Amino acid sequence: MPDLRGTTITWLGHATVLVQSAAGTGVLIDPFIEHSPTYPKDFKLPGKLDLVLVTHGHFDHIADAIPVAAKHHAKVVSIVEITDFLEKKGVKNTQGMNYGGSFKHADVTITMVEAKHSSSIQDGENVLYGGNPAGFILHIENGPTLYHAGDTSVFSDMKLIAELYAPELGMLPIGDNYTMGPKAAALAAKYLLLKTVLPIHYGTFPVLTGTPAELTALLEGSSIEVLQMKPGESV
User: Fold this and answer.
1) Which of 5, 53, 112, 221 has the CB geometry, 3.0–4.6 Å to 97, for a possible disulfide?
2) Residue 117 domain-assigned?
3) pTM greater than the 0.85 cutoff
């Protein structure tokens, strides 16, 4: 198991991940709760949530950002086009960002990095421009550096992410069809020089066929650990 130095990571199905630092900062990434087939329905979010990170505008990543932010008085962090949209929907506390920029809250520094995907926002019958899709680096003081890749395919500039930020644990999509599958995710883990991979964005819908077992087999012989967790489990 990875040494997270007091930080707790809880996978909540699909791409939804809760990160809680040893100092008590709570970060929820890509909240897909109410309509997610794999969100653990008996799981209750902690009362204290400081940040909600949204990687892009697709429904299965942004669906519960507004109610979660309202209930927990959390700051929503995303690409500027998405935070502008959320502000118009009544979200009072946002931090718009773009690629390469960093934002610090307490003991957690958030950096926005590139992702290879698409992004749009479904607003009733209208489809709105959602800016560029993104990933996030979370650098936790006296703790680990984490990478949530959002929805992405593998790209060679992941080597730059490794060089600039040196993430130890990467949350990588493996489901295939809409994101990279296990073969590409294995290459991504090597580009990123990760110690540990938490597979995300698989098994939620039938089309997402990639599995952690496939990723584990593809990384056999490397030093990279693959976490095989059930929704609601923590490390």
Assistant:
1) 112
2) yes
3) yes
pLDDT digits (tens), the chain, 235 positions: 789 999 999 999 999 999 999 999 999 999 999 999 999 999 999 999 999 999 999 999 999 999 999 999 999 999 999 999 999 999 999 999 999 999 999 999 999 999 999 999 999 999 999 999 999 999 999 999 999 999 999 999 999 999 999 999 999 999 999 999 999 999 999 999 999 999 999 999 999 999 999 999 999 999 999 999 999 999 9
CATH number of the domain at 168, please.
3.60.15.10
Q: Is residue 2 part of a domain?
A: no
| Domain-embedded: residue 231 | no
